[in-house]
Amino acid sequence: MGTGTVSFGLVSIPIKLYSTGESSAGISFNWLHGKCGGRVKQQYYCPTEDEVVERKDLVKGYEFAKDRYVVMDDEELAVLTTKATNSIDITEFVPVETVDPIYYERAYFLGPDKGGDRPYRLLAEAMRQTQRVALARYAARGKNYLVLLRPFREGLVMQQLRYAEEVRGFDEVPLGEGEVKPAELQLARQLIDQIAADDFKPEGYRDDSRDQMREILRKKVEGEEIVSAAPAEPPRGQIIDLMQALKASLAKEGDGAERRPPRRSARSAEVEKPARAAAGARRTRSAKK
Q: Whose C-alpha in 163, 175, 223, 285 is 20 to 30 A from the C-alpha of 63?
């Protein structure tokens, strides 16, 4: 997508930016004229003059009050535009867990440009070992961005972040009141343990609705008849009793599958070894008697 430089201290690393998204995975539709099947074009309409406005006659305006605008010409807009330096200037390194994902926006892969292989790998490995990520400023496309660089596999990812003023305060969310009872908490923890996994494996998840849409579109293109989808399941009855809901969830997860034993730490296993050995010795002595 572009090139740039990662800078911190006196170190400069030439890099290349790559998109992380796969545009071919999406499904989009175009608006067509139902009468002839031709693709329609967008037009700008002025209700005051009751006419279609050509793009060359458009100007940009900022609404400072209801239906009141200040018009900005190209020279004035140029003053507002940040000069693109394509320099990613690291300001500090912080523990990754201190940056909540709520601040994450789009992500980009970073790869080394010519002459940047060694310092690129050095930075990635240093952050991996210190378990820290880099906060940086990035001026590109006429804007100043706050970004985060983090290790990803053998390289780096640049994560565009929201600024603090762009994130609503959580205190705006009404939480109500509810007491967490120990017995309910214990059942909830058991449910989590029962379906817990050590790793996130994204390849294990698919967008079923998109797969179904692709199949329907394939049939449509090939002239096959489109059969209506099965009706959605009726909503389940609401379980008011939280304990009943938790117990029912545990029972459902346990049906038809061998229940996984709870995970034990290496330390727990080491502690249990002598106890198992002692129990085995007692059984052996009993058998001899």
A: 163
